[in-house]
Design brief:
globular, about 0% strand, mainly alpha, about 230 residues, single chain
């Protein structure tokens, strides 16, 4: 798995994908952080992560669109599948490479917060709560994106499909109010990513939400592994 992770991580930085992703995200963070400085109140630093959350969830599919789609298009997937490594290790290596790029980007966003914190007293519990929530939610989106990438050889289809799922997950809470059905509303609230995300933004560490997001990651990585397994023996 480590070898796959290193290989994929290098591929991100040999191509413009990682640089574009990091550049766009950090630029937008910089714009919002500058607005915080102009307001003169460090209270709004935590809200920057809340605003950037939507942007990050829409940009994350760019990190997963090529994971397996590119391998299939370039006909290099068979060499990968016949390598002396398990499909589970392949999937987790690729997932962790994408998550590493995202994690590194989000850690860099803390630099302006620390600098502003030298001259003020920001609410760190909200800042770190938002950061943790974004990482957990993002990990789930990345796992879903890796799975979708394994279903097609078109990077565009993988990108659009993952963006569509990401938007759906952000809007799914509103669907419950459209139908006056208690069972449907209960199901929506249970699978709602947004409901699991919100407690962290208020500074509340919710262990059940952590388990939920990690379970989503595990389930979709498992499904991706089974998809690759079926192709290995086909």
């Amino acid at each position: 798995m480590t070898a796959i992770w290193k290989r994929e991580l290098r591929s991100f930085y040999y191509s413009p994908i990682a640089y574009v992703f990091m550049g766009v995200v950090l630029f937008l963070f910089g714009v919002y952080d500058w607005n915080v400085v102009m307001t003169g109140s460090s209270y709004y630093i935590g809200q920057v992560y809340g605003v950037m959350f939507t942007w990050c969830m829409l940009f994350l599919p760019a990190l997963t669109m090529k994971m397996f789609s590119e391998e299939r298009k370039n006909k290099t997937d068979q060499a990968l599948l016949t390598a002396p490594v398990s499909v589970t290790a392949i999937v987790w290596g690729k997932f962790l490479a994408a998550f590493s790029v995202y994690l590194f980007t989000m850690l860099i966003t803390l630099i302006p917060a620390f600098i502003i914190g030298l001259f003020s007293s920001p609410t760190w519990v909200h800042i770190f709560g938002n950061l943790l929530a974004s990482l957990l939610y993002g990990a789930a989106i990345l796992a879903i994106g890796v799975f979708i990438s394994s279903l097609t050889e078109s990077q565009i289809v993988a990108l659009v499909g993952t963006v569509g799922v990401s938007i759906l997950l952000m809007l799914i809470d509103s669907f419950g109010s459209f139908f006056d059905n208690e069972v449907f509303s209960t199901i929506v609230s249970w699978i709602s990513f947004q409901a699991r995300y919100t407690p962290f933004t208020n500074g509340i560490f919710n262990i059940s939400s952590v388990v939920f997001f990690l379970s989503v990651v595990a389930v979709f990585n498992f499904l991706t592994a089974r998809r690759l397994e079926s192709r290995r023996w086909s």
